[in-house]
Structures
1.
Amino acid sequence: MGNNLLKGKKGIIFGALNDMSIAWKVAERCVEEGATITLSNTPLAIRMGTTEELATKLNAKLIPADATSVEDLECVFDESMEALGGKIDFLLHSIGMSPNVRKKRTYDDLDYNLLNQTLDISAISFHKILQVAYKKNAINDWGSVLALSYGAAQRTMYGYNDMADAKAMLESIARSFGYIYGRAHNVRINTISQSPTVTTAGSGIKGFDSLVDFSERMSPLGNATAAECADYCVVMFSDLTKKVTMQNLFHDGGYSSMGMSYRAMEQYIKSFEGLKDEAGNIILG
Amino acid sequence: MGNNLLKGKKGIIFGALNDMSIAWKVAERCVEEGATITLSNTPLAIRMGTTEELATKLNAKLIPADATSVEDLECVFDESMEALGGKIDFLLHSIGMSPNVRKKRTYDDLDYNLLNQTLDISAISFHKILQVAYKKNAINDWGSVLALSYGAAQRTMYGYNDMADAKAMLESIARSFGYIYGRAHNVRINTISQSPTVTTAGSGIKGFDSLVDFSERMSPLGNATAAECADYCVVMFSDLTKKVTMQNLFHDGGYSSMGMSYRAMEQYIKSFEGLKDEAGNIILG
Amino acid sequence: MGNNLLKGKKGIIFGALNDMSIAWKVAERCVEEGATITLSNTPLAIRMGTTEELATKLNAKLIPADATSVEDLECVFDESMEALGGKIDFLLHSIGMSPNVRKKRTYDDLDYNLLNQTLDISAISFHKILQVAYKKNAINDWGSVLALSYGAAQRTMYGYNDMADAKAMLESIARSFGYIYGRAHNVRINTISQSPTVTTAGSGIKGFDSLVDFSERMSPLGNATAAECADYCVVMFSDLTKKVTMQNLFHDGGYSSMGMSYRAMEQYIKSFEGLKDEAGNIILG
Amino acid sequence: MGNNLLKGKKGIIFGALNDMSIAWKVAERCVEEGATITLSNTPLAIRMGTTEELATKLNAKLIPADATSVEDLECVFDESMEALGGKIDFLLHSIGMSPNVRKKRTYDDLDYNLLNQTLDISAISFHKILQVAYKKNAINDWGSVLALSYGAAQRTMYGYNDMADAKAMLESIARSFGYIYGRAHNVRINTISQSPTVTTAGSGIKGFDSLVDFSERMSPLGNATAAECADYCVVMFSDLTKKVTMQNLFHDGGYSSMGMSYRAMEQYIKSFEGLKDEAGNIILG
C-alpha cells in the first residue's frame, strides 16, 4: 500500500498518545513505508493513552521516558538501537505542553517555574534528544529529524500563551542544531508547522473550534489533517529530501500565506447582521 | 509644532491626490518639520484631485509628471533641484493603480496589457525614479527614499489582485536598488507596509470596509492612520535612522505579527449565532 | 528503481535545455516514478539544446512554445492533454532569462523594454501558464504546480540584477494564483528556491564559481544538486504533499538559514593573510 | 542639540556597562532629547563597569537589580516611578549573557543548567520586566519598550551558541507581550536587531573581528554603530512611531537583506590566491 519510501530505515517516534495524535499517524505511515520503529512517551502518557496498543499493532518497542531527562533519553537511544539493530535514520519530536495553560495562568501572569517547565518539555527536550543522539553518534549520516511546530511561533494567537515562545525556541533549536549536526554528519533537522489539528493536545486551547473553522475558511485547501501530516513527515524522512534542512515547513493548506480569503471574510461579515443602519452600512461598535 | 527633524532638507513627494492621501499628510508633516519640498502627480490626478491647493498651502512647486515616463521624471528632478536650490534629501513614492482591478478583470482573467500597466505604474515607476535620480546624481549622500507598500505583498488578500504582485516587486526593487544606491552614495531605500487606510485609492477594493474592521480588531493598537504614517515617514527621512535600509517596515498597529486576536475572534464567533444546535455547539456548514 | 510516486500521473515540464538543466533531471525522475509527460521549450532553445534527445529517451512529446505567448501555451495544454490522454496532474516552470544581464546593462542602467522582457519571460509566463490552464480546466483536482526560484528574491545578490525582481514577482504569483486555483480546484502551487546550480543558465552570472564555493561552505549539507532538486520536485508532485501550497520552499542544504558558518569564515579569513601586523592581528583596510 | 523628541518623558535603561555599551549611548541620547531616566544593572556589572559615572553625568538614579529576580524588578519600577515622579514612558532591555559560551561549552555539549541561565538572563528577564510593569500598571498608555536582538535569531552564526535560541525567544516575547500590553494599554513592544557591535559583550565571541569585517563589506551602508543605534532607539521611543509594534527591526546598514555584495565577494576571492591552477581556475579543496 505504501511506496517503500522508508524501506530498511529505522526510526524513533516521540509523542504518540492515542489515535488522534499526529505522532500516531506518523508511526503507522512510517511502518507502512517499510520502516521499523520504536515509540517513546512519558510513563503518565502511556497510562492515560493507548500507545501500547499502537506498539503491539506495529510490532514496535515502546520505551517509556521523560523527554526532559537526559538519562531517560540515553536509554531511549540505547534501547532503540538494540531493538532496531543499528543506528537511527529518522526521528519525530511531537512533544509540547504548557503547565501555565493548564493552570489557567494568562500570559501577563505567568508562573516562572511553570514557564521553565513549558520550555523544558516543549523546546529544550528537542535539544536534549539531539545532543544525546549526537554524543552517542546514534543517527546515521543523512538521517532526518523533525519536530512539530505551529504558526504561533511567528504570529501571536490569543490564548496560545507561553507555548508561542516555546515553539519559537523549538524552531531556533532546529536551525542551531541543524547547522552542527549537518556539518558533522549530514543529518538534516526541520520543523513542520501544521494547521490547528483536533488532537487531545490541540483541543485544550480556548475557542479552538472557532479557530479551526476560521483557519479552514482561510486556507484555500482547507486545514491539513493529521493523516496528511503523516504523509508529509514520510517524505521528509525519505531520501528524496536530502538537502532540505534548518527549515520551518508550513503544512497548512496555504493558511500561512493568506492575508484574507473571500470565504473567511464572507463569514466574518455575517457577524454584523443586525448591526446595520437603515442604509445597510455596518455599524461598528 | 514640529521637532525640526527635517530642517534644511529638500524632498519630493509623489502621489498626493487629496487630503485623504497619505502622501498629502506626509507633505504637510515634512514641511512642518522644516523641509522644503516639491510635489508631483499625473496631470489627470492634478485635475481630479486638489494637489494644487496643497502646493499653494505649503509653498511647494507642483510638477505634473507621468511617473512611468523617464523623460517626465527627468523634468521632476531638474525642476525640483532648481526650485529647491540643490540636491534632494528625501523622496516618497506613493503611487499605485491596477487597471485590471478598475476593469474588474479577476486574477484568473487578467488582461496582460493591463498587467504591464499595473507593474509599470505601481512598481517599475519606483525603479525609474531611482535610476533617473542615480544618473543625475540628484540625491545627497545619506538621503532617504520611501515607497508605500501593503501586506498583500507577503500574504494574499482576496480582491487585491495583481496589485499583490506589483507590491512584491516594489519591495524587491527597494532591496535591489537599496544595495546599489547604498554602496555608491549611502542613500537608503525602504518600503513602509501600512495598515489598510481609507483613502481614495484604498476605498476601491471590494469589501474594504469589513477588511478595515477585521484589521482594526486584529491589531492590538488598531489600524495606523494616514497621519501616523506621515509621522513614521518623517523619522525615516530624518538623520536618526541612517542605517536602516532595504527593509520593509510594517506600520500597522501590530497586525502583521498577529495570528488571531481575542477581539477579532469574538466578532467572528458572532457570525455563527443562529447556527447553533440545542447544545450550543456551532454548526459548521 | 523509483517508488511509483507518480504512477499514472500526467505532467508538463517547461525549460529542459540540456542534461545540465534542472528541468531535464526532473523530467527523467518523473518518468522513472511512473509519470507520462510532455516537454516544452522555445523553438530557439530546442535548436540550441538537446531537448529532442530527452523527448526521445522518455518517449515524451516535445511541444515548441514561447511561454510568453498565450496562444502558444494554449497549444501546449491542448497537445499535452491529447498526447497524455487527459488532464494534467503536475507542471514544472523552469524558465528565466534577463536580456538586461545578457546585454550587460547594470541595475542602475536598466533598459525598460528589456526589463519588461525579463518579467514577461521569467515571471509573467508563470501567470500565463496558470491562467491558460485554469481557463481550460486543464489541471486535475489536487494537481501540483512548481516553479524554480532563487534566494535573490529575498536577499540581494550582486550581479543578479533584474532577475531578483522577477523572482520576487514569480513567488508572489505562486501565492496569488495558489489561492485562486486552490479554492477552486484544490490545485497547489509552490516555488522551490534552489542552491546556485551549475547549469547553462546559472553559469552566465558574474563570479558565479566563487559564489557557488561560498554557498557550498556556508551550507551545512553543501549545495543541492540538480538531481537532488529533481527528487524534491517528485515529492512535491506526489500525493504525499497535498496540503503544501503557496510556499517558497528552500532546497539549499541549509544556506537560507545560515548567517555564517565556521568553514566559510575560515576561508574568508585566509583572504587577509599577508595583511596582518606583527601581533598577528588582521589589518582592516 | 537634540530635537526634544522625548521632552517630558520618563524612562528606564537596563544594561549600560561602560561607554562602549549601546545602552550607555541610548541613555545619553534620551537625556539629550529631553527625557529623565533611571539606570539599572546588576550589582556585579556596576562594580565591574562605570555605570555610576554615567548616572552622575546624566543625573540619573542608578538602581542595582538582578533582572532575573521579580523582586528586584519590582524595586526598579517602584524606585524609578518615585525618582521620576510618575509612570514610565519608555524602557530599554539590553541584557544578554550565555554562561555556556563563557564556559566554552559548545552547542552540542550544552550544560542544561547553564542553558536555563542563558534563557533566564537573556530572554525571560524581558518577560519579567514586562509582567512586573504590567501588574504595577507602571507604563503610561502609548509607552514604548525596546529590547536589543541580533540576526542570529533568524540565521545561524557559528559560535553564537545558545544565545541564538535566547534571542529567538526574546523576539517571540516581544510579539506575545506586545499583543497583551498593546490591547490593554496601547504600549508598543519591539526588538531592534543590530549589526555586530564592538562592545564588551560582543567582543567575547570567537572570530568576532572577522565577522565584523565581513558584515561591514556585505552591508551597503556599513555596520551600524552604537551611537546610530541610540538614535534609532530615540525615534522608536518618541511619539512619531506610535503604531509600530510586535516588530523585529533590523538596524544593520542593509545586511539582513543582502545575499552577497561585490565587496564581500571580492575579499572572499582573495582567499584563494595561491590556490589556482595554471589556467587560473580556483582549486577547491
Note: The mean pLDDT of chain C is 94.
2.
Amino acid sequence: MSKKIDIPFFDGDDFHTAQNVKKMSDGKSLDDLDRYEWLLTLNKLAGEQVKKNGCIIACSALKEKYRDILKSGIENNIKWILLNGSFEQVIERLGNRKDHFMPTSLLRSQFETFEDPIDALKIDIALSRKEIIKTINNELVNRSEFGLLGLGVMGKSLSRNLANSGFKISIFNRHLKGVEEDIAINFKNEYKELDSALAFDDFEDFVNSIQKPRKIMLMVNAGKTVDVVIERLIPYLSKDDVIVDGGNSHYKDTERRIKYLKNEGIYFLGVGISGGEEGALRGPSIMPGGNKNSYRLIQPFLEKIAAKDKNKQPCCSYIGGDGSGHFVKMIHNGIEYAEMQLLAEVYTLFRSLGKVPDEIANILETWKAASNSYLLEITIEILRKKEKNGWIIDSILDKAGNKGTGNWATIAAAELGTPSSMIASALFARHLSSFKEEREKAEGVYGENERSPKLSKEELLKAYHLSRIINHHQGFKLLLQASNAYNWDLNLAEIARIWINGCIIRSSLMEDLVIILKQADTILLNKEIVKRVKYLRPSLNNVVSQALLSQMEIPTLSEAVNYLNGYTNGRSSANLIQAQRDYFGAHTYQKINDATGKFYHTNWNKLSHD
Amino acid sequence: MSKKIDIPFFDGDDFHTAQNVKKMSDGKSLDDLDRYEWLLTLNKLAGEQVKKNGCIIACSALKEKYRDILKSGIENNIKWILLNGSFEQVIERLGNRKDHFMPTSLLRSQFETFEDPIDALKIDIALSRKEIIKTINNELVNRSEFGLLGLGVMGKSLSRNLANSGFKISIFNRHLKGVEEDIAINFKNEYKELDSALAFDDFEDFVNSIQKPRKIMLMVNAGKTVDVVIERLIPYLSKDDVIVDGGNSHYKDTERRIKYLKNEGIYFLGVGISGGEEGALRGPSIMPGGNKNSYRLIQPFLEKIAAKDKNKQPCCSYIGGDGSGHFVKMIHNGIEYAEMQLLAEVYTLFRSLGKVPDEIANILETWKAASNSYLLEITIEILRKKEKNGWIIDSILDKAGNKGTGNWATIAAAELGTPSSMIASALFARHLSSFKEEREKAEGVYGENERSPKLSKEELLKAYHLSRIINHHQGFKLLLQASNAYNWDLNLAEIARIWINGCIIRSSLMEDLVIILKQADTILLNKEIVKRVKYLRPSLNNVVSQALLSQMEIPTLSEAVNYLNGYTNGRSSANLIQAQRDYFGAHTYQKINDATGKFYHTNWNKLSHD
C-alpha cells in the first residue's frame, strides 16, 4: 500500500519503549499508563508526517480513548482502517510470526480490551493482500470523505466551506428536467476550490462515491422533501452510515426520522446551522443533535467549517440527544424574531421623533459600544442604503414573512408552559403586518396615529438594551424548560458560546451570557444582570409608557416590561383566575398558607346552599 | 302494532285531496306542490296526536324535505320506520292490492324520487307481520333514544338535562374495581328524572339498549381515553350509528377520528359544549361539527337540551364539517382566557389603588350596565365571598392552571398566521404565574413593584370595555382565518348568537356582536364599533401607560393597545424586518409602489461589489 500510493509506512510496535517491550516479553499486558507515552510518540510522528504527504501507521489502537490521543490535533487528517479478524484467525497468524516480543498469550486480553470504532473502514483479513490494498484504495483514495445533498443557497455555501477546509466532498443536486439540470457539475466547474469534488445528479452514484461509513448532509427544504430524499437514499446506504439534516426541520420530525432510520441501521442527526448564506460560506454556528457516538463521525467536518469564538474554539458543540439540535436552532430563531422586532420598534420610534434613516443609522452606530450585535450592524447598513429615489427602506413593503421556526418556537413555548411572550409578540407583529390592506382600511377609518412621544435617544438605548436582556432570559428559559422536559441536559453556557460567532444573534450581550450562564441558568437572577436591569428599568418603563400614549405599535418592548413586572411580582393576580376556574368548572385551587398543596373547592354561588 | 301498544293508526293515503287522488288515478305522479297540502295535513294530524298518546301514521315520505314538513314542530317526538323492500317485492304487492287509486305504473317514479332516511329504523318487508311488530317493539319501545357514556361532572349534568327534556336515555360508566363501581346505577337511583333511564357498566349491554341508528355521546377525558372508548364500542355498533364526542378534544384528533370511523361505516361528530357543570344541567351552549347529514340525527336532542337565546332559539347550531365544532369551542375558550385575564388585571389595578375586595365588587357591580358578562358576575360574587379569616380570594395561591384549550388556541393562531396576541398573552400570564417560587425570589432581589398608578375607576371601565372589544375582534378573526383555511364556511353571527347564553363568555357585548357580525366579519371596522373605540381609546392608552409606569403586570391590556395601534397603522415597521431578512438570508422583499408584487433582492453589504 505504501509503495502504491507513495507515502511512508511505520509499524507502531517499533516505537515502544524498552520497558514496554520487556513487559510484553514477560507475558504481561500493558496498562493505560504504559501505553500513554507510546501513543503520544505515534501521535507526534503522525503530526509530522501530515505536514508532508501523510503516512501509514499500523498499530493496535484498541480503545476509543487511545484513538483520541492518536488523532489529537490532526482529527481532520486521519483515516482509520480496521483489519478485522476473529480471535481464531489472529491467534493462528500470531503463532506463525517470528522474532516478535509479544507472546500469543496476550491476545485474549487485547480482544477483551478492544472497542469497535464506528468511524473506521473495516477490512476482512481473510482477503488477499492484493484485495485489501485494492479495497483501501477504492474506499479511501478514490472516494470522497463527505457528501452534501441539495445545492440551494445554503448547500452551495457549505460545500465551498467544506472544500476550502480541505475536505474531499461529493455534491449532489437532483435532476429536474427543464428546471434543475446539471446543477452539481456546473457548480463544481464554477469554483476552483471544488476541483477535487465529485458532482452528481444520480442518487446511487452519489452514495457510492463516499467512503464508508458514509457521512451525507442534507441541505434540502424542511418538511416532506427530507422524507422523500431519505427514501431515495436508503436503498444505497450501508449499516452505520450517517445522514445529517442541516436544514430547519421541526425537531419532532427529526425525532421521528432518528427512530425510523435506527431500524434501518442508519444514524440520523439533526443539525441546526445559523449564519445565512455568508455564515455558511465563511463559518456558521452549528448545533448538532442526535446520537452522540455517531456525532463523532461528523464532528471533525463540522468543527472545521464552523465559525470560531475569540479563543479560536469552533462555534459548534454537541447539543444533546433526539431532536435537540433542531430545537435549539428553532429557539435561536425565536430569539432572532424578537431581536429583529425590537430593532423595528426602535426604528419606528425614531421615525416618530422625526429622524430620517441616515440619522437613525448614525445614532445606532453610537449604540454599538453598549449593545452591539450582528443585527444592529446590518440594520445600520440597511438604513444607510440608498437608491436613486432615496432610502431603500422607504420603498419596502411592510408585510413581514412569517412562516417556520418563529411559529414553531411560539408553539413549543405554549406546549412547554413557558411564558416566551417576546417571541410570541414578535411573531404576532409579523402576522399583523401581513394584513396590510386591512390595516390601511383601518387607518382610513380611525385616522393616523402619528403623535410624537417625548423620548430621548439615551432612554431608547436603555430600553432597547434591557428588552434584549429580557428576550435572552426568556429564550434560555425556554431551552431550560425543554431540557428538563425532554431530559436533554442542555449546557446553556456552551450554547451561548457557540452563538457568539457565525450566527444571526451573535452579540456582545451573548458574550456576557457565556460567563453569566456558567454561574446559573436564570439570567434575570444573576447579580450583575440585576444591577443592570435596575439601572435600565425606569427608561424602559418610560419609553413604553410614552410610546403607548402616542399610539405607537411596540408589542415586544411592551412585553419586555410586562414580563419583567410579572417576573418580579411575588404575588400575581392568578388567584382570581383560579377562583373563576373553581367557580364555573369546579377546577379547585390551592391556598397560600397551606404548604401541603391540598386542593380546595368553594361553592361560590350565593344561591347555593353549601 | 296499533292494537299492541294502544295508540291510533292512520293511513296517510286517506288524507289526500280529491284532486290528488284523481291525478294518481289518471296515472300521473304527484309533484311537490300537490304533496305540500297533504303533508301539512298529516303534520297537523301528528301534532294533535302527540298531545295525546301519539299515533302511528303510514304514508309515503319519499324526500327529506317531505319528512321535514311532516316532523315540523314535533322533531323531538317523531320516530321514523322505513318498511324496506325492493322494487320487485313492492310491485308484486301493489299488483295484489285492490280498490286503490294508485296505479302500479307510478311505482317506478316513487322509487326514483326516494331519498333514503338516515334516521329511520329500517325493517325488511320480507319479514312476517308478527316479526315486524316484534322488531318495532324491541327497537322503539324497549330501547332508549340516546346513549351517554362517561358520568363525570359534565356527563352527569348532561344526562339529567336529557332526562328532564323527556328523552329516554341509556347511561354508562366504566367499571373500575375499587375505584368506579356501579356509578351509572347509583346515579340513576339518585335522581327522580332518571327513572326511565337505563344504566350500564357493560359496553355491549349499553350499546344494545339504544335504538338504531344509535346516538352515543362520549363525555370522557379528551385524549387517549376517547380512542380507547371508541375501540371498545366498535364491535357492537352498526352501520350509520353516530358517536358524538362532547369533550374538549383537539380538533385535529376529531378529524382523525371522523376519517377512521367513516371507514367503519360509523358517523363521528365533534361537539363543543360550554357552560360548566351548571350550564350542562340547565342548558349549555353547544357547537356541533362534522358530517351535516349525521348531525340531523342528534339535532333534536342537542337543541332541546341547549340554552335558549332571547328569542327562545336554542344556543346550538351546526358549525361546519370536520373538527370545526371542537375548533370553535377551543377559540371560545381562548377568548375566555383573555376575558378572565382582563378581569384579573382590572382587579390587580384596583388593589394597587388600595381597594379591598368588597369595594372592588361594588365598583364592578356598577359596570354591569355598560359591560355585563357572566365572568363579570361571578367575579363580583367571588370578591364578596368571605371565610372566617377574611376574603377567600386573599388566601388562594396565585398559580393558574394552564393546560388544554388555551394552549391549543394560541398554537392554532400561530399555525394560521393570525395575530391572536391577547389569547397568547393571557396564556403566558398563566404560565408565568406558575413560576411562583422564582417570582418570589425575583421580588426579593428586585424589591416590590407596588406603586400606585394615577387612575380613575371610570377610565378603568373604559379601558376594560375596549380591551374586551379587541379581544372579541381577535377571537372572531381567528375563526374567520380558520374558516377560510379549512373551507368551513363558518357563520360568525350565528356563532355569536349561540354564545349569548349557556356558555362562559356570554355577555351583553356578545349580544351586540350578533348584529354587528351579520353586517360584516370584521368587528373593528364596524361603524358603531369604530365610534365606541374612538371614545374609549384615550382611556385605555392612559390606563396602560400609567400602570406600566407603576410596574404593574398587565400583559393583556397592553396587548389590546398594541394590537389596536398596529391594526390602525397602515404603514408598519415590518419593512425593516423584510430588509433584515433579505440582508442575511436573501429572502427578498416586495415594494410599496409595485403592484405587480415582484420580489426584489438587494446586495446590502457595503463590502460587496454588486
Note: Chain A touches chain B through 124 residues (CB under 8 Å).
3.
Amino acid sequence: MKAKLAQLKTLLAEKDDLDKVAALLEWDQQVNMPHDGAEARGNQMGTIQRLAHEKLTSPMVGDLLKELKVHAKSLDPDSDDARFIKVANRDYKTAVKVPGDFVAEFSKITTLSHGVWTAARAEDNFSIFQPSLEKIVDMVRRYAEFFAPYDHVYDPLLDIYEPGMKTSEVQAIFNGLRSEQVALLKTIRNSPQVENDFLYQPYDVQKQWDFGVEVISQYGYDWNRGRQDKSAHPFTTNFSINDVRITTRFLPDFIGSALFSTMHEGGHALYEQGVSQIYERTPLGGGASLAIHESQSRMFENLIGRSQQFWSHFYSRLQEFFPAQLSNVDLDTFYKGINKVEPSLIRVEADEATYNLHVMLRLEIEIALLEGNLEVKDLPEAWNSRMEDYLGVTPPNDAQGVLQDVHWSSGLFGYFSTYALGNLVSAQLWEVMEKDMPAMLEQMSRGEFGEILDWVRTRIHVHGRKYDPQELVQQVTGSKIDPLAYMRYLTSKYSQIYGF
Amino acid sequence: MKAKLAQLKTLLAEKDDLDKVAALLEWDQQVNMPHDGAEARGNQMGTIQRLAHEKLTSPMVGDLLKELKVHAKSLDPDSDDARFIKVANRDYKTAVKVPGDFVAEFSKITTLSHGVWTAARAEDNFSIFQPSLEKIVDMVRRYAEFFAPYDHVYDPLLDIYEPGMKTSEVQAIFNGLRSEQVALLKTIRNSPQVENDFLYQPYDVQKQWDFGVEVISQYGYDWNRGRQDKSAHPFTTNFSINDVRITTRFLPDFIGSALFSTMHEGGHALYEQGVSQIYERTPLGGGASLAIHESQSRMFENLIGRSQQFWSHFYSRLQEFFPAQLSNVDLDTFYKGINKVEPSLIRVEADEATYNLHVMLRLEIEIALLEGNLEVKDLPEAWNSRMEDYLGVTPPNDAQGVLQDVHWSSGLFGYFSTYALGNLVSAQLWEVMEKDMPAMLEQMSRGEFGEILDWVRTRIHVHGRKYDPQELVQQVTGSKIDPLAYMRYLTSKYSQIYGF
C-alpha cells in the first residue's frame, strides 16, 4: 500500500508541475508577454491544461485511489496521508465528471467571450455581450448537470471555489447580513462625512512602489521566495511554496489603489508562502478555499492595513515619502480618509461598509440565472434595481454596471460570494486573535507583525488544503462562517470614525 | 495520406508547445525567478522535458513517419511538406536513439555539475570540477555510441547543433584558418596599437539601455513580438515566432559589453522573428543551425555594428547620450577603439581577430577528449599550452582558463565550433550582399537597414529549419562554409585600422 501511495504521489506531483507551469504561462502573459505572443500562448496553455487534465483523470490515478480509499479507513483521519487521499479523491472525482470535450469547448468559448466582453464594456453596449453570456450561462448550467443530483443547481459551482460549502449556507449567511449592512450604511450616510481629497493628488509611482515594499516586507513577505511586478489587474500567483509572486497596479494620481492592493496581494502571498513545505507538489499545497484566501488578504489590507494602530506607526514614514502631499494632513484625518464610506458603482473600489453589498447583488443574480428565474437579456435591469435597493446608487450606464467585472466572461460563476465570505472570516479570526494576543494592537502600533504572522501561519497557512474551509474556520474560531463578528467590527470601527 | 500528415502535424505542434514552455521556464529562471524557486523549477522543467521527449518518440509518431516517408517520395523534395517530413524524421530518429533513462541521468548529472563548476571556478580549483567533468565526458562518449557506426566519434555531437555537418569538414575548415589567423594576429601586434580607454568609464546604465534599444529598433526588431530584459548572461529565446525575447547584461564602467551584446542578441532575434509564420508550431520553425544563427548575430554585431558606416551615422547620437565621456573622442578614434585587437584570456570578451582561435582550442580539446587522446586531468595543461601557441598568452589561473566557460558543465559538447563557423558564414553572406546591394554601405551610413534585413530575411530567416546549414549556405553564396571570405574581411578591416 505504501508503494501505491508513493506511485499516486508521483503522478500527482507531475500533475502539480503542469498546473504550476500553466500558472507561469498566465503570469507571464499578464506581466511580460509582448502583444503578438497571445495566439501561441493560447496554444501552449491549451496543451498544458489538457495534459494536466489527462494526468489527473487517468485510469491509473482512478485505480490507485480506489485501493487507497479502502486503505485510508485504517489511517488516522487527520493524518496527512489520509487527507492527501481524501483531497486527491475529491479533485479526481470532480475532474472525471466533466468530459474533456466540454472543458475544451468551455475554454474556447470563454477565451472568445473575454474579447467580446472587453469590446462591449468599451462601447458600453450590453447587447454585444448578451449572446456570449447566454452561451456561457447555458454551459455553466450544463456543468452543474454533470454533478446531478444536487441540493441546488448552484452547489456544484460554489463547490469549485469553496469545497463542501452549500448554496443554502451562503444564502443563510447573506440573509442575516444584508439588512444589517444596509442599515449601517444608512446610519453612516446620515452622519457628518469625512474627507479624503488628499488621496487624490499626484503621487510618484516609484515612491508608491518603495513604500509598499516596506510595508509587506514588514508583514513578513519573503523576497527570496517571491517578487513584485506591475500588471493591469493586481493578482497573486505561485509556482511553488518557494516562488510566490504578487503584482500591483499603480495610479499616478491616487495613492489608495496601489497602497491597499499591495497589502491585499501581500496577504494572499503570505498565505501561499506559509503552506507547509511537505505539501510542495501535492494536492495539499495551496489555500483551503478562495474565502479563506480572501480572509488573509482582507486581514492584511483592512483589519491591519486600515487600522489606527498600523498608521500610528507607518504614517510618519509615508509622510517622509510624500511631504508635499501629506505634511499638512494629520494622522486622524488620514485615518478617517482611508476609511471613508461612499456608496459607489464599482465593486473593486468599494469601501469595507459597502463591499459585501456588491457581492450579494452578484450572488443573487447568478443564482437567479442558474435557476432560470432571470434571463440574460434582463440582467441590466435586475442589476440596476438592486444597486438602487442596496446602495442607493444607479449606474449611469452598463459599463459601470453589469459589465464592470471580468468574471462572467471568463466563465467564473460561483466565485463572487467568496469575496464576502472572506471578509466575514477575517473578522472571526480577528476576534480570536485579539483574545489570544493581548499585545497584538500594541505590536501593530510599533510596526511589529511577527506574532500575528506566526498566529495565522500555524493555524491557517501551514495546513494548505488539508482541511475544508468550514472545518478550518470551526477549528480555529469554534464556529462556522457567520456574519456577527464582521458586523461587530464594522459597527465599532465606523461608529468611532463617524461619531454615531 | 493528407489525414496522416495532419495528424503528425498536430502531434508535433503539441511537442513544440512543450519545447516553448520549457524555454519560458528557462527564461523566467534566468530573468525573474526568486532564489528559492530553483528546486521547484527543476522539477517542472524535468516533467515538461520528459513529456516532450515522450511525445516525439511515441510509437504513433514513428508509425506516421514510416508511412509518410514513403509518401514524401512522390512530393517535390523542396516542398514544405517534404521538408517537414524529412526534418521531423531526423528529429525523431535522433530522439529515439537516446533512451529516456539516459536523458534523465544526463540531465541530473549536468544539473549537479553546474553547481560544482560554479564552485570550482569561484575557488579557482580545477580538481573540484574534474570528477564531474570525467562523468560528463564519459556520458558524452556513451551518447555518441548510440549513433554508431559513425565516421568520427565527435560527429553525433556536432550533429546536434549543425545538422549534417561532419567533424572532418570542420577540421578541414579550421586547419585552413588557424595559421592565417595566427599570422594576422602577429602582424597586428607588430603594428602601432590603438587606444580604447574611453570605453572604460562610468556609463549610465539606463542610457546604455536606451541607446541599445534605438539601435536594434533601427535594425528592425519588432517590439510587438519581443522584449528586452536584464540577465547575468545575455541570451535570446523565443516562445513563438511572435514572441522573441533578448536579454542584456549592463556593466556600469564599460560600454562595450552591453552595446555589442544588444546588437548580437538583436541579430539572433531578427532571425527568429523572420521565420515564416507558416512554420509556427512545426519542426521547421527556429534557426537552421547554431552556426547560421551565429552568422546573423555576428553580422549585426560586427559586420554592421563595428563598421565605419554604422558609426558614421550613430556616433553623434551616442555622443548625445554620453557627452561627458565621448565629446572629446572623435569618430575615427572611437571606430578604432571598438575594433582594438588584444589577445586575451576570455573568449566572450575576445575581438574579431582572436575570437576564432579561442574556439579552435576548445574544439581540439573536445575532440581529443572524445577520441581518448586527452584525459580530463590533463586539461589545464593542454588548455594553457594551446593558449600560448595560438594567442601568446598564458592564463594565470584555471578560473580564467579551462574553467571559464559554462558549456562543459552543462554537457554541451559539440557546440563551440558553431561560434567560429558563424563568423565565417557571416562574411560569406556579406560578400554576396555587397554585390547584390551596391548601395548597402551607403544605406548603413544613413542608419538604414531595411534592404539588408529584407535580404537576410528572404534568403535565410524565412526558411527556418527547412534547409540543412551547409545546403543553405551553398544556396545563398554558391559555396559551402569556408574561411576565405572571413580572412579577406579581417585582413581588409585591420590593415586599414592598423595601417599595414
Note: Strands of chain A lie at 226-230, 236-240, 243-248.
